[in-house]
Amino acid sequence: MDRNTTEIFTEICYLGLLQGLQIISLIVCIAASYLDGGLAAVFNVTGFGAIGDGIHDDTEAFSQAWEAACSNGGGSSSVIVPAGRTFLLSPVNFEGPCYSSNVHFQVLGKIVAPNETDAWKGCVSNSWLHFSDIPGLVLEGSGVIDGRGSPWWKNVSLGILKNVCFTNPFH
C-alpha cells in the first residue's frame, strides 16, 4: 500500500468501529450504484417540503420530488418516502417519460389517502396514485400505502359519490 492508502485506513480505525462500518457501507453502496450504471440520485420527499404528519397534504412535495427524479438524466433515481412518518396524498399523477434509466419509488413510511370526498373533486384520472409512461419503474419498500377504502365502499353502494373523479362501477 502507498502512504495515502495507509493513512486512510489508519484514520478509519481511529473513527471507531461503528463509524468505520458506516464508511464501509457507504463504499459498498457507491460501488453497487456504479454497477447499476452510475451513481443513483436520491430525492427524499421531505427535502421538497413534505411534512409527514398525516394531516397536512404532502401532494405538492411528492410531485416536486417525482419531477426532480424523473428529469434527472442518466443512471437511476430514487424517490424516498422515509420511515416513521405518515404522508397524506390527494389524487396525484406521476408521469413519464423520465430521463433516468430507471426510477425507484421507495416507500418506507406510510402514505394515506384523504378521508373527505371533496379532496377527490377535479382530479385528472380515475385513480388515487397514478403512475404512467415510466418504463423501468420499481415500486419497493417496507412501508404502507393505505387508500382508506372502507368509508368509501359504503358511500359508493349508497350512490352518494357523484361528481367525484371516478366512475361508479356499481351503477
UniProtKB/TrEMBL annotation:
InterPro entries found in the cross-reference section: Glyco_hydro_28 (IPR000743), Pectin_lyas_fold (IPR012334), Pectin_lyase_fold/virulence (IPR011050)
UniProt KW Membrane keyword: yes
Localization: Secreted, Cell wall
Keywords linked to the UniProt accession: Cell wall, Cell wall biogenesis/degradation, Glycosidase, Hydrolase, Membrane, Secreted, Transmembrane, Transmembrane helix
Family statement: Belongs to the glycosyl hydrolase 28 family.
Molecular function in Gene Ontology: polygalacturonase activity
GO process annotations (BP): carbohydrate metabolic process; cell wall organization
Record keyword Magnesium present: no
Major localisation: secreted
Chain ranges passing through the membrane: 12-35
Coiled coil stretches, renumbered: none
Pfam families: Glyco_hydro_28
Protein name (record): DH200=94 genomic scaffold, scaffold_5728
